[in-house]
Design brief:
alpha+beta, five-stranded mixed beta sheet, 4 helices, 9 strands
Length: 175
């Protein structure tokens, strides 16, 4: 019995916000480049040097592309099987982080408040522990025997809930 879930940043609001903010910043620097380098007119009351403007525009474009690629390729993978719970948040983790069952006190699917409980989405440390989430407000809450809490977000609440119920029954009957 295995549960596997892959999550990506698929929220339209995230992509719209990312693209619009990137285009606005690149547009401002691009306009400055056009005005100062192409037209030969000063851009702003205290203009940066031509070389500084070229470097700044290049860095802004590079930063925008890196953030865009980060969101495009980021993926949170969760695997639950008889050995424990494993997660990987690529590109921050290149291999799975395995949590064996003997380290877990309890686990359940919960509804949480991402901003209030963890300060948002991604890899977060908040007042309720550590969280790995992509979007939404549903996740697998792990209560560790050490007293720490780990939350792994899910986009398949019903499927994960059904799996954890069946898994607890099977695990309980095998002891």
């Amino acid at each position: 019995m295995i549960y596997k879930e892959d999550q990506k940043f698929n929220e339209p609001a995230i992509w719209i916000g990312l693209i619009v903010s990137g285009l606005v910043v690149v547009g401002i620097f691009g306009f400055g480049f056009y005005r100062q380098i192409i037209q030969g007119l000063q851009f702003g009351n205290n203009p940066i040097s031509d070389n500084g403007l070229i470097v700044s525009l290049s860095l802004v474009i590079l930063l925008f592309l890196l953030v865009f690629l980060l969101f495009a390729f980021a993926k949170l993978t969760t695997v639950i099987d008889k050995s424990g719970i494993a997660y990987k948040f690529f590109p921050f983790h290149f291999k799975f982080h395995q949590i064996s069952w003997d380290k877990i006190e309890n686990f359940e699917v919960v509804t949480y408040k991402p901003l209030k409980d963890y300060g948002g989405w991604g890899i977060r440390i908040g007042r309720k522990g550590k969280a790995f989430n992509i979007s939404g407000n549903k996740g697998l809450q792990l209560q560790m025997k050490s007293g720490k809490n780990i939350l792994i977000g899910t986009q398949n609440e019903t499927e994960l809930t059904n799996f954890t119920i069946r898994f607890k029954i099977i695990m309980g009957s095998s002891t």
